Amino acid sequence: MQPWKTLARTTVLERGKYLTVEDHTIELPDGRTIEQWPWLATPEFVNVAVVTADRELLCFRQTKYAVPGVSLAVVGGYLEPGEDPLSAAQRELLEETGYEADTWTALGRYAVDGNRGAGAAHLFIAQNARRVAEINADDLEEQELLLLSAQQARAALEAGEFKCLPWAAVMALALLRLGG
Amino acid sequence: MQPWKTLARTTVLERGKYLTVEDHTIELPDGRTIEQWPWLATPEFVNVAVVTADRELLCFRQTKYAVPGVSLAVVGGYLEPGEDPLSAAQRELLEETGYEADTWTALGRYAVDGNRGAGAAHLFIAQNARRVAEINADDLEEQELLLLSAQQARAALEAGEFKCLPWAAVMALALLRLGG
Fold first, then answer.
1. Of A48, A86, A161, A172, which has the fewest beta carbons less than 10 angstroms from its beta carbon?
2. pLDDT (tens digit, 9 = 90+) per residue, B97-141?
3. DSSP string across A135-178
């Protein structure tokens, strides 16, 4: 199986550090070319399923602009320029919750949109987390910290209450790894 | 918790049915306003974890433009205009694999990007699937059908071999529900 080749790329829209839209000219393995294939360049980000020393899952209840109503959510955020994913995950955990964790496991890197990019999610599980500081978040959304047992987290996940794709993905991968 | 309000929206880029970029003017609950918040309008889509009558998982090996190398993948595709998610999932299963399934369970609707939209994923598990027809796919990518045991699928998932976020999400949710 051969990858598609990028023959040319043109920036068609810029919106600061969060979004650049490009048009790509692509060559398929059979020689056909496609013009104006839209490509979304957005920052990579992390999401973390956080398990406390008491084996509870540290989550949020919050609003998000693209999500109807209130959602359960997990720790996460964009990578700073040059930052590696694990450092970003550890920084976001401390900023958003005031917790630190002893044991970090990478759950993989995932393209958000297989066709158009739209960044990548780096997912982690952080275990044996403990509160060490006050919350110091700069997020625009209102959010409320909450602790769920693994059973509560699983029930909420299966009821669709983690309403964003990377949040549901990291919770499902983590609960699978923790033993269901 | 109050949602953000959309005060105005302007289309700034159109690329056929797959992408429209808008600028939104947003009012936060505390009265602040944000100008030029980029919003990605893209079609909603389905992904399906397919379990055959022999309790194997029906997957693909394939390339995707936004994914490095070859990835494991699942059945999926965009909703046609006016199509409901379950019908789209059943159509994609038949077109992409020639299979039909007896038992369908919705695993939820998930915003792809909590900040900027980028469509929504409707995830399903289809059980007791059987081959009834030839493959009739119109996808541009090369793809190869394969059957994995639940144990093989889980090992591949944990090794990060489902390299797109919605594919990993639906596999993890399905394997959790099937009993790990």
1. A86
2. 999 999 999 999 999 999 999 999 999 999 999 999 988 877 777
3. -----SS-EEEEEE-HHHHHHHHHTT-S-BHHHHHHHHHHHHHH
pLDDT of residue B52: 97
Fold of the B45-178 domain: Nucleoside Triphosphate Pyrophosphohydrolase (3.90.79)
Report CB contact under 8 Å: A111, B66: yes
Bridge-based pairing of strands A75-78 and A45-52 is: antiparallel
Model confidence over A78-114: pLDDT tens digits? Answer: 999 999 999 999 999 999 999 999 999 999 999 999 9
| Interface contact A112, partner B, CB < 8 A | yes
Q: Which segments of chain A have a pLDDT < 70?
A: 180
Residue A165's nearest CA partner among B106, B88, B169, B161 is B169
| Partners of residue A65 on adjacent β-strands | none
Locate A91 and state its tokens: 């920084």
**Cα radius of gyration (chain B):** 18
Question: Does residue A97 sit in helix, strand or coil?
Answer: helix
What is the rounded distance in angstroms from the CA atom of residue A16 to the CA atom of residue B108? 32
Cβ–Cβ contact A110 with B under 8 A: yes
Query: What's the mean pLDDT when you consider all of chain A?
Result: 95
Position A100 scores a pLDDT of 98
Residue B110 is encoded by which pair of tokens? 């998930």
The DSSP call for residue B167 is H
Look at B111 and A70 and tell me if their CB atoms are within 8 Å: no
Q: Which residues are CB-neighbours of B162 under 8 A, at least 6 positions away?
A: A110, B71, B72, B73, B74, B156, B168, B171
In this structure, the strands spanning B5-15 and B19-27 are antiparallel
Asked whether B131 and B54 are in contact (CB, 8 A), the reply is no
* Amino acid code (one letter) for A76: G
| Distance to chain B for A83, nearest Cα, Å | 21
pTM for this predicted structure: 0.96
User: B19 vs A116: CB contact, 8 Å cut-off?
Assistant: yes
Residue B165 reports pLDDT greater than 70: yes
Q: Which residues of B touch A176 (CB under 8 A)?
A: 154, 157-158, 172, 175-176, 180
Q: Return the amino acid letter for B28.
A: L
